[in-house]
């Protein structure tokens, strides 16, 4: 066996999947999806083919051409990180059908009962496949090293709707003979059921597969964007207002990075249990409701997920060892979009918040500096356990360092060449460095590329932002340590980002009287805390500033 990814059972000697056709029957009472997946391979193949699974109950595997059963073996040994390998024994075959059920404890699925929804009437379910959880929804070669197209028939109660990271084809009644053996015909065609069909015509890594089913409504906010959320007017209206400038962002991104290749850029605001600030699923970005704050600062999260449309979704890291290629590039692109739309000060605030977060991560990983590198070794490591700001912020700093060296105009040209050269491909760090050296001759003499990508810690030529507002806010935070608190006039024009930068630079412990000062600015402070929690959820960072936690407790005690 020759694995190609430390987090997958996929064998490099096996043919890759090019298309997956899914039939999904959503059984809300049992919190299961009765399913079948038709996998099409790149070539005909004879031999054992290994797929990734986690907590799937496999019923049968069939040859769809003659409906004969194909031998398979689901390993009884469960790897705590990778799950269970499913071995399918093929004979001159290029497609096969797997019939299975998901588990109520699927790591990619969150089932909500009606009491956990806004209207309290119907259940809700959403998926989160990043980074290695698609295997708990369908058997697959669950690695970003390659891409796959897919289609899906989704059978749900008629009161509910479905959105997916794919093109919506139609909503209609179920038909006999279309269920792909995922469940009984009578169940599939039962009363009160509808089918929604989707197709993803562009190849994506499996972690970008996504859907949500629930009582969902929408508002149109631009020619390429609808905002979806639970079907409650207040939620939808607030989301539409918050993200009303999304089309300007898309156009700004296109000016910087080239044509937007995904046709739609729709947004889904999920229930509060969604554990990220945002997830960059193509065509349907998932967002936490905490980004809706009524001051458009939630647009920063949207800018990050939009930037992924070029860096991450269009060009993808081969494995999580090279995760910085997704997030470092996207963080850089996000800040360029923010700068173009909101100005240099807004971008500098984001850079400053990121810089403080990067410094804090050095302390977090002081006993395991491997994960302060850009190019990591994650063999035997769950990627969720080492999720951090490092690939985001150190990756950003690396690209910013290259920009400072060659100039923005030259770096913009390089970025467009890079995206054009590798679009719809998966790459690793060495491929990027080779491309960089080929297109920026002599760059290795000006910047220590090995130190930046393979070295631990923060390189000496990394840099804090230079900005009047950034310097002023950090200075005020330092003065807080000496007992001086800012005046109302000094914070009068602060919004979420300014407060976040201020809070992040405060000491870990303070006097009670100082906390009461912060409560004096209750509304703005609470907004900033929401920003912090939203951003930190996006990175699984549990090291929230203790002062912010104290303020939260105090606010709820008022």
TrEMBL record:
Recorded GO cellular component terms are: cytosol
Residue ranges constituting the Aminopeptidase N-like N-terminal domain according to the UniProt record: 19-208
Output the SUPFAM superfamilies linked to this UniProt entry.
Leukotriene A4 hydrolase N-terminal domain, Metalloproteases ('zincins'), catalytic domain
Going by the UniProt record, its keywords in alphabetical order are: Cytoplasm, Hydrolase, Metal-binding, Metalloprotease, Protease, Zinc
Gene3D superfamilies noted in UniProt: 3.30.2010.30, Neutral Protease Domain 2, tricorn interacting facor f3 domain
| One term of GO molecular function | epoxide hydrolase activity
Cofactor(s) for this protein?
Zn(2+)
Q: Which residues form the Peptidase M1 membrane alanine aminopeptidase domain?
A: 254-439
InterPro entries found in the cross-reference section: Aminopeptidase_N-like_N (IPR045357), Aminopeptidase_N-like_N_sf (IPR042097), LTA4H_cat (IPR049980), M1_LTA4H (IPR034015), Peptidase_M1 (IPR001930), Peptidase_M1_dom (IPR014782), Peptidase_M4/M1_CTD_sf (IPR027268)
Sequence similarity: Belongs to the peptidase M1 family.
Instruction: Please identify the protein, giving its name as recorded.
Output: Leucine aminopeptidase
Q: Which organism is it from?
A: Artemisia annua (Sweet wormwood)
High-level lineage: Eukaryota, Viridiplantae, Streptophyta, Embryophyta, Tracheophyta
